[in-house]
Design a protein that fits this description.
mainly alpha
Length: 97
């Protein structure tokens, strides 16, 4: 998988995982995040490692789907398990992800 495809797949997986995780409402366990990552990978056909998504979610949000961080330097905010920038999420929505 080339770098562009990997980044696109990671961003798309992050968005799908975020929608599913926020519905649950509470901080998740590593096992819950791993199950959600695997479900997302299987449903969308992404060529990604669930372990990599779990590690990113831990680093970015400590498994808190409601995590929010203001990115003042770029006038944006990142949200969710994977801390996807809202601008990136909006762009991905516009192109159909």
């Amino acid at each position: 998988m080339n770098a562009v495809a990997l980044i696109a797949a990671l961003a798309a997986a992050a968005l799908v995982m975020h929608r599913s995780a926020v519905a649950g409402g509470a901080v998740m366990t590593a096992d819950q995040v791993r199950a959600l990552a695997q479900k997302t990978i299987d449903a969308a056909g992404f060529d990604l490692s669930p372990a990599m998504l779990v590690r990113i979610a831990y680093i970015e949000s400590a498994f808190n789907p409601a995590a929010l961080r203001v990115e003042a330097k770029i006038n944006d905010a990142s949200a969710g398990l994977m801390q996807v920038l809202q601008g990136t999420a909006h762009w991905m929505w516009e192109i159909g992800y």
